[in-house]
Amino acid sequence: MPTHKKIAIVTGGGSGLGYAIAEKFIQQDIETIIVGRDEDKLATAKEKLGKGCHTMSCDLSNLSSIPGLIQNILTEFGQIDVLVNNAGINMKKLFTEVTDEEFQRILTTNVTAVFAISREVVKHMLTRESGSIINISSMAAQYGLPKVIAYSASKTAIDGMTRAMAVELSPKGIRVNAIAPGFIYSDMTAKALDSDPERKAKVFGRTPMGVMGQPTDIGEAAYFLASDAAKYITGVVLPVDGGNSIGF
C-alpha cells in the first residue's frame, strides 16, 4: 500500500557506486530496494545499510524477468518514486578481438536492460504523474577511451536515451537525468592506477582538482537529482569528475 515515504530502486546496489547511492538515500529516509544478481552481496549490503534497505535478486540481462521484478516491487511497496539505473558491466579488450557475442552482452546489460526496467517503472510513474529516473553514464561517453569499445558505445547510448526519455516523459511529471562519474576511489581503481604509473599520471594530469572522487560524491549527486531541490532539472548528464571531462 502506498506510503508517505519515497520508494527508490537502485540496480547494482550491492557494491560500489550503487551502494553509495543506496546509503545516501537510506540516510535521507528513502526506503531503498537494491537489485542485483549476487544474493550474498545483497545480503551483506542490507546488513550494513539497515532497515531502510530491501533486496531483490534479479539478473537484469534476463530481460523477460524485468516486468515481474517491477510488479513484485509494486505489490510489496505500492509505489516507485525513484529509479537509479546503475547496474553495468565492462570488459577491457582490444577492438579487433571483441566478439559479436561479447559486444552484445554488454549492450544487453548496459542499454537494453536499462530501457526495459525504465519502461516498466515509467508505466507506473505515469499513473501518478511524478517520478525521477537517474541513469549512470561514464567518462567513456564524454571522450574516447581505448579497449572499452562496447562499454563506450553503451554509455553513449545512455546519454542519448536520457535526453530522449526526458523530452518525452517530463511533460508528464517524470524527470530523467544522468550522472557521469569521473575517476572515483575504490580499492580496485587505486590498485589499478598504482600498478600503472603512466595511466595514473594521465588521470591526475587531466583532472583539474587533482584528486579522485569518493563514492559518496556520486551518492550526493544522485540524491540531489532525485530530490525536489532538482525539480526544474531534466535531461542533463551531470559530470561528477573533478573537472576531468573538461581537463587538458
Could you please describe the fold and organization of this structure?
One of its GO terms (molecular function) is oxidoreductase activity. Pfam families: adh_short_C2 (PF13561). InterPro entries: NAD(P)-bd_dom_sf, Sc_DH/Rdtase_CS, SDR_fam. Keywords: Oxidoreductase. It comes from Sediminibacterium goheungense. Strands 3-2-1-4-5-6-7 form a 7-stranded parallel β-sheet, with helices on both faces. The model has no long low-confidence stretch (mean pLDDT 96). The longest helix is centred in the middle third of the chain and has 29 residues. 46% of the residues lie in helices and 15% in strands. The protein has 8 helices and 7 strands, in the order E-H-E-H-E-H-E-H-E-H-E-H-H-H-E. The protein has a single domain, classed as NAD(P)-binding Rossmann-like Domain (Rossmann fold), CATH 3.40.50. Helix 1 links the parallel strand 1 and strand 2. The protein is an alpha/beta fold and 248 residues long.
Could you give a quick summary of the protein structure above?
With 248 residues, the protein is an alpha/beta fold. The chain has helices spanning 16-27, 39-49, 66-77, 100-128, 149-169, 187-194, 197-205, 215-226, and strands at residues 7-11, 31-36, 53-57, 82-85, 131-136, 174-181, 237-240. α1 (16-27) crosses α8 and α4 runs parallel beside α5 (149-169).
